[in-house]
C-alpha cells in the first residue's frame, strides 16, 4: 500500500478517536492545536492525492453522545468551512454585505417553536441526527419558553459555560477522574446528564447564532438576529463588516480575547452573508454548505522556553503539576507558567528534570505546553503534599488509564476549597478578589489553612504583589475587600460558616428568632433550634453536630476575633411598607449595594421577593423600565406595574 494511504488511515483514526473523546465530554486525547495541525495535514494529502476515506473528519461533522432519544434534524446542521487566512475570508466575501460574530466553543443546539411555544431542543449530533434534550428546557438559560411569534420557527445556537463557572465547578470536583478538560468539555458532559436540577446548577447559557427558519420572509441575517433579540433570546455579538474592513475588525475582536475581556469561551470568529437567500444557494458537501458562512481560526503562536522547575499544586484531593519556565511573550502577554495536567501527560510529553518546552495560549487564553525538546533526566514526584505535608499516593484511573497524584490526608485544607469559596461569596463574607484559583494558590503557598487566615493575608502582601496576575493595585484591592468584610450581617456570617443544610433562609429564621448571641448560646447549651419555624429537627441536629466538631468550634472562635457581627433585627414588620406585597427585582441596582441587600429590605418591611413574574406579582422593579426583556414583556402581558428602583424607594423606602 502507498505510504500516503497508510498516513491518511493513521490520521483519520487519531482524529476520530480524539473527536469522540472531545464531543463525548471525556478527557481530551490531544490539544486543539495538535488536532488542527493533523486536520490540516490530512486535508492537504486528500487534496493532493484524491484519496478520501468515508469516515474522514474532513467529510463529517463531529458527533457527541447523549442520553436523549435520536431524531432527524428538519434542516441539516452542517459545519462551516474553516481558514486561518484573513485573505481567504476577503475573497469569499467579495463585495457583499457580511457580518462578523464569535465562534463560540460550546455545544450546538437547535430549538423549534410552534404556536409561540418551545416544542423541541435537539443537539447537533452528526449534523443530520441529534439527541432530543427538550426535558432540559428549564435548566438552560438564554432562550424564552414562549414567544410572541406564533408561526413555525427554528433557531440554532451554542450552549456554553463561562470560564468563571468552569473554574468554580472543576476546582471543586474532588475525584480527578471526573474533572473536565475545558468549558466545552464541561458543557458537553453537562448536557448528557439526566437530572435537570444538576444541569441547572452548571449555568449553561444558550447564545443564538442563526435563525434557521421562519414562516415569514426576513431575508437579512442582521434583521433576523434583531428579531430573535426582541423575542428574548441571548444573541451572539455581531458587527456589520465588508471585505475591506474585515482585517481591522478581526484584529479588534481578537484583542478582546487576548486581553481576557471574554468570559465566554471562543475558538475563532465567523463571517456570514447578510443576504440569507444568497447564503442558502451554495453547494453542499457532506461536511459543510459553501455559502452558509466561513469560520476563522487564529494562527497558534508558540514560543520555546527553558523549564525552571515543576510546581505541584494541590486542589481538592488532586496534586497537579505546573511547569514554571523562563518568561516568554505570547499573544501580547508575559507567560511563565502552564499546567501539565497530570503524571500521564508529563510522561506523554517527555518532561525531564531539564528540558525546553514549546508553549502556546490555547484559544489565546490558557497557557499550554504542546511539546518538549532537549529533555534530560527524570521529573521528581513529591512524596509529601505541598499544603499539609501528608504522604502522597499515585492513583490510576480505571476509566481513562490516567495517573494522578493525591494527598492522603482527609483533613487537608485544600480538600475543602468548596467551603472557602462559599465563605468569600457574596452571600457569605462578600470578599471580592478571592477566586477559586487564587484561594488554591494561597493554600499551596502556605498562606491559608482556615477561614481566619484570610484576615492575616496582609502579612504576605509583599509576596502576593510578586505573584503572577497580581501587582500593587490588585493586592491592595484584595486587602481592602478583606477589611471591609470584617463588618458582617449575622445571616451572611452563618451562611459563610458552611454548616450543612443551613443556607440564607435558615439563617434568617434562626436570627429572627434568637439573634446572633442567642444562636451562639443555643449551640453552647446544646438546646438546638427545633422550635424555630421552618428549621425542624433535621436542620437543628445538623447545626449541633457541626458545633460538636472541635475544629469547627475552634474555627468559629478564631473568626469571632477577626470580625464584628452587626446588631440587626429580622423580626417581620407587622405594618411594614411592603407588607403583603410580592416583588420581582431584575437588572442592576444602585440605591442598594446589591440585589441581596434590596431583597433583605423588602423582607424586613414585610414583603416577599420572587425570581419570576406571575399573576401573584405586585411590582417588577427594573431600572430599565423600557427594556424588552422577558420579565418586562411578561409584566406587560399580565398588567403588572414596572417601577424603577428610585420609584420603589420613594414609595416603599424608609
Defining key terms:
about 650 residues, alpha+beta, Helix Hairpins, D-amino Acid Aminotransferase, Chain A, domain 1, OB fold (Dihydrolipoamide Acetyltransferase, E2P), seven-stranded antiparallel β-sheet, 21 helices, 24 strands
What is this entry, summarized?
It contains 21 helices and 24 strands.
Structural description of this entry:
This protein is of the alpha+beta class and 654 residues long. It has 6 domains: 47 residues, Orthogonal Bundle (Helix Hairpins), CATH 1.10.287; 227 residues, D-amino Acid Aminotransferase, Chain A, domain 1, CATH 3.30.470; 105 residues, OB fold (Dihydrolipoamide Acetyltransferase, E2P) (Beta Barrel), CATH 2.40.50; 73 residues, 5' to 3' exonuclease, C-terminal subdomain (DNA polymerase, domain 1), CATH 1.10.150; 76 residues, DNA polymerase, domain 1, CATH 1.10.150.20; 71 residues, 3-Layer(aba) Sandwich (Rossmann fold), CATH 3.40.50. It contains 21 helices and 24 strands. The strands form 6 sheets. Strands 12, 13, 14, 15, 16, 17 and 18 form a 7-stranded antiparallel β-sheet that branches. Strands 2-11-10-3-9 form a 5-stranded mixed β-sheet. Helix 1 runs antiparallel to helix 2 and helix 15 packs across helix 16. The longest helix is centred in the N-terminal third of the chain and has 21 residues. It is globular, with a radius of gyration of 27 Å.
Amino acid at each position: 500500500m502507498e505510504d500516503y494511504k497508510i498516513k491518511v488511515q493513521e490520521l483519520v483514526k487519531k482524529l476520530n478517536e480524539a473527536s469522540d473523546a472531545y464531543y463525548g465530554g471525556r478527557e481530551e486525547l490531544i490539544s486543539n492545536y495538535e488536532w488542527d495541525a493533523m486536520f490540516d495535514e490530512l486535508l492537504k494529502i486528500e487534496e493532493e492525492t484524491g484519496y478520501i476515506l468515508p469516515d474522514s473528519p474532513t467529510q463529517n461533522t463531529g458527533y457527541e453522545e447523549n442520553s436523549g432519544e435520536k431524531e432527524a434534524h428538519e434542516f441539516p446542521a452542517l459545519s462551516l468551512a474553516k481558514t486561518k487566512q484573513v485573505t481567504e475570508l476577503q475573497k469569499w466575501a467579495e463585495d457583499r454585505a457580511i457580518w462578523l460574530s464569535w465562534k463560540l466553543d460550546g455545544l450546538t443546539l437547535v430549538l423549534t417553536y410552534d404556536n409561540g411555544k418551545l416544542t423541541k431542543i435537539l443537539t447537533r449530533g452528526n449534523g443530520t441526527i441529534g439527541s432530543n434534550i427538550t426535558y432540559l428546557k428549564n435548566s438552560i438559560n438564554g432562550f424564552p419558553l414562549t414567544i410572541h411569534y406564533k408561526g413555525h420557527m427554528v433557531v440554532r445556537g451554542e450552549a456554553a459555560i463561562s470560564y468563571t463557572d468552569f473554574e468554580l465547578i472543576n476546582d471543586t470536583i474532588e475525584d480527578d477522574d471526573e474533572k473536565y478538560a475545558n468549558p466545552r468539555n464541561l458543557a458537553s458532559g453537562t448536557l448528557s446528564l439526566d437530572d435537570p436540577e444538576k444541569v441547572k446548577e452548571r449555568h449553561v447559557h444558550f447564545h443564538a447564532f442563526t435563525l434557521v427558519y421562519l414562516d415569514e420572509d426576513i431575508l437579512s441575517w442582521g434583521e433576523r438576529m434583531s428579531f430573535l433579540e426582541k423575542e428574548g433570546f441571548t444573541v451572539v455579538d455581531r458587527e456589520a463588516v465588508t471585505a475591506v474592513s474585515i482585517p481591522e475588525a478581526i484584529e479588534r475582536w481578537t484583542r478582546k480575547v487576548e486581553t481576557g475581556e471574554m468570559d465566554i469561551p471562543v475558538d475563532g470568529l465567523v463571517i456570514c452573508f447578510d443576504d440569507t437567500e444568497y447564503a442558502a444557494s451554495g453547494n453542499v458537501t457532506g461536511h459543510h454548505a459553501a455559502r452558509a458562512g466561513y469560520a476563522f481560526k487564529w494562527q497558534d503562536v508558540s514560543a520555546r522556553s527553558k523549564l525552571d522547575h515543576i510546581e505541584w499544586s494541590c486542589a481538592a484531593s488532586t496534586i497537579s503539576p505546573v511547569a514554571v519556565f523562563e518568561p516568554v511573550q505570547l499573544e501580547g502577554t508575559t507567560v511563565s507558567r502552564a499546567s501539565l495536567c497530570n503524571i500521564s501527560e508529563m510522561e506523554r510529553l517527555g518532561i525531564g528534570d531539564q528540558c525546553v518546552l514549546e508553549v502556546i495560549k490555547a484559544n489565546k487564553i490558557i497557557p499550554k505546553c504542546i511539546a518538549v525538546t532537549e529533555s534530560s533526566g527524570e521529573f521528581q514526584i513529591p512524596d509529601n503534599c505541598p499544603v499539609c505535608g501528608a504522604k502522597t499516593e499515585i492513583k490510576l484511573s480505571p476509566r481513562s488509564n490516567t495517573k494522578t497524584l493525591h494527598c492522603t490526608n482527609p483533613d487537608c485544607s485544600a480538600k475543602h476549597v468548596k467551603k472557602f469559596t462559599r465563605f468569600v461569596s457574596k452571600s457569605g463574607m462578600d470578599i471580592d478578589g478571592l477566586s477559586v484559583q487564587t484561594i488554591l494558590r494561597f493554600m499551596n503557598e502556605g498562606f491559608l489553612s482556615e477561614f481566619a487566615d484570610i484576615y492575616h493575608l496582609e502579612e504576605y502582601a509583599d509576596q502576593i504583589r510578586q505573584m503572577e496576575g497580581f501587582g500593587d493595585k490588585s493586592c491592595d484591592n484584595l486587602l481592602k475587600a478583606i477589611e471591609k468584610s470584617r463588618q458582617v450581617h449575622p445571616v451572611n456570617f452563618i451562611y459563610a460558616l458552611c454548616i450543612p443544610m443551613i443556607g440564607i433562609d435558615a439563617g434568617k429564621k434562626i436570627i429572627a428568632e434568637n439573634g446572633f448571641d442567642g444562636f451562639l448560646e443555643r449551640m453552647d447549651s446544646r438546646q438546638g433550634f427545633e422550635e424555630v419555624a421552618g428549621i425542624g429537627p433535621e436542620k437543628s441536629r445538623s447545626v449541633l453536630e457541626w458545633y460538636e466538631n472541635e475544629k469547627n468550634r475552634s474555627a468559629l472562635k478564631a473568626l469571632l476575633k477577626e470580625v464584628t457581627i452587626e446588631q440587626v433585627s429580622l423580626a417581620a414588620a407587622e405594618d411594614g411598607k411592603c407588607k403583603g406585597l410580592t416583588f420581582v427585582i431584575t437588572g442592576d441596582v444602585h440605591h442598594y449595594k446589591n440585589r441581596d441587600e434590596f431583597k433583605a429590605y423588602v423582607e424586613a418591611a414585610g414583603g416577599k421577593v420572587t425570581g419570576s413574574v406571575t399573576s401573584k406579582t405586585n411590582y417588577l422593579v427594573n431600572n430599565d423600565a423600557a427594556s424588552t426583556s422577558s420579565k418586562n414583556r411578561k409584566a406587560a402581558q399580565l398588567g403588572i406595574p414596572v417601577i424603577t428602583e428610585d420609584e420603589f424607594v420613594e414609595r416603599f423606602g424608609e
